[in-house]
Amino acid sequence: MAILDIQAIKEILPHRYPFLLVDRIVELEPERIVGIKNVTANEPFFQGHFPDLPVMPGVLIVEAMAQVAGVLVLKALGTKQRAVFLASIEQAKFRRPVVPGDQLRIEMKVGRRKASAVKMYGTAMVDSVVVAEAEVMCMLTDAPTAADPPAAASAPAPQTAPAPKET
To answer: Is 91 in contact with 133 (CB distance < 8 Å)?
Structure first.
């Protein structure tokens, strides 16, 4: 039985298809969370990774782990005034390929908390076999509002070198 279904997850995380990589939360405690990602043959990344041997990219497994961690962090805050960004990945290990038909069971545990950061440790399993593990650091920031200018608009324009003179 899902504690949080996909609709509840979409109310917490800003991610959307094709980058929402958690389908439901099945366990939720103050310092621990378990999420599920159903890996299907229809995932867009399988078109190129690899067409004749579909394997879920390890970086997307870690992203799914970070999204599960983000649900825990944001759910604990109980506010939409904060955003969570992945700040670091450490000790990532990939034990076996994840393929269409697999169901990832992602368990994340809180390691250290600070006012603006949370370090979490986790594993991704398929059929009770660990397929990946990693430590992720999530940074908390104020959520951008519609009134905030895009970051690119406020950044200074890149300097260009003058064209060389013909001689």
So the answer is: yes
Which helix or strand (DSSP H or E) is residue 106 part of? strand 103-113
Class of the domain covering 6-144: alpha beta
Amino acid making up residue 118: V
User: Could you state, in order of their start, the residue ranges of all structural domains in the chain?
Assistant: 6-144
Angle at 7 between CA 6 and CA 10, to 5 degrees: 85
CA of residue 56 relative to chain centroid, distance: 14
Q: Which of 29, 23, 31, 20 is nearest to 5 (CA)?
A: 23
Out of 15, 49, 95, 119, the active site residue is: 49
Q: Tens digit of pLDDT for each residue in 88-124?
A: 999 999 999 999 999 999 999 999 999 899 999 999 9
**Cα–Cα distance for residue pair 118/73, rounded to 1 Å:** 8
For the question of residue 49 being annotated catalytic, the response is yes
